[in-house]
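ping. complex inputs:
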Amino acid sequence: MAEQTQGAVPLSAVIADAATGVALALQGGGDPYALSRILRQGDPLAAAAVRVLGADALAPYALEHRAVPAGADDEAVVRQTLAAYPPGADASAVSAWSYRGLVEATHAYLPSGAQPWPRPPEAAAEWTGTDPWPRLAHRVSQLAALALPDLAGELAEQLGARTDDLARGFVRAVRRRDWLQAAGVGRWLARLPGVPATLGLDAGLAFVRQMGGGDPRVALHVVAAQRFFGRGW
Amino acid sequence: MSAGRGDPELLDRLVGGSLGWLEKRRDHFRLPPDATTDADPNLTLKPLGELAELTQFIGSAHPLPEVRATAAALFAFAWREAREGELFAELIRGEPYATYPVEIYGAFAQAGLRHPAVEELVLTTTGLRGWRVAREDHTRTLGVLNAERRIGLAQHADFDAAFARTGLGLRPEPWALDRRAAYGLTHDVFHLTDWGRNPRRLSPEAAGYLRLWLPSWLENWLEEQLWDLVGELLAVAACLPGAPYDAAAWQRLAAAQAADGGVPETGAVPRPADPAEDFLACYHSTLVTAFAGTLARIASDEAGAGTGPVPAGDAAVAGRTPCESEAAL
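pong. complex structure:
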């Protein structure tokens, strides 16, 4: 865990701590999860961290009994992020989908208070059919947080046609020791049907965690793959 | 990767350039006077053995007559350099338990080039119980078994059992493949298929495994610019049913070929200025490039003739006609 006693805590440390908190909650450890305990409303870096974590900031709410019922503080952190980082017209597909994922997660996991959540914005998906496999795998790894139950169903359906290609991306990423990409693609593969048996996905996720788990975001993806989709060990 | 005709023009340029480079540097393959005593076989016999193995195939199987003629002349040169087999008799008398003289001799023997003294010697040496002691490297065992088959000797071990213990037999997690294992895997394919002559010996499981994961491995080693391994992986792809053709990978290999036709082993370091060092840095990749280009070119012709591409899993009908085992001299 990063030191928080110094004046300026870098964003990367805030993200790492938050990812660790989410992973811990998904594993059933620690106190019941509350987003506003991990990232405080008003902290100038909280919104930026939620933006990076995307739907994962709310992942523990997808589990029964692992989170305290979301309160006004939790909702406020999310609303702060949604207001601060709306994707522009020229936003990349990853930015647009990531934002959409967070909005979808609010609908799926966080009952809103007085004010309803915004509607999930449209995000282009033609790249799921046209990207060459290395680029596809890279993009999908950046959208690892969308590999959650009841989220991005259409995206999952389209990616289901490209499991061989995503599996190739997993192989490439592990061989490059790009653990974050490997964990992200592996997490999506955990969600998808028809993953080639010779890939060895379960052993692969365990391997990625052993080799790259020092990065809390790598650990989070592997834990999510296991907790939600039963893959890896 | 896509199946189909590939790019015959690019393949012909690549193979022609490689053979031209080899032809110009033919004298570097000549054996020194101490080849059977003190010389390092990795710098003398290994290059000559590879030259023989691959030019015999190209010389008998490439669709273009002029390419066949160039390769056949190089193969004939290799046989002369081996003193028409006398070299192997000397090597075996010097190192009766070593496998490499038998393996290299096998490349000539299958083409009908034989030497009476070697034939007698190997009957004795390969019949020893000691010859059957397991070797460290199961891929190497496949190579020895293939040489025994080519020479017509009794197999010292069961081929299928040895194959089952190799990389391709075990089919490891594709992400758990290091460079050494990758070279092992390509050679499992070469020994199993008799260097591309008999691709139908690849089981549907092995072919399916290779078809799935070759694109990842190619991408990795293209990135590392390890051109000899890239060439070997492309050769393996050309052995698969339907011969999936990775146009981008072939273009990158072609771009690695220098104007003189040489293909360096790695793009990470500049080619040496010293001709002898340059030869050692290039001969293997250049031979592999000519070999892979020949396999892909044969597959391209077969696709053009309407015999391919063949759907995956239909390996039984996918084999090319086994090549003639003639001397091509």
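Residues 32 and 65 of chain A are 8 Å apart (CA to CA).
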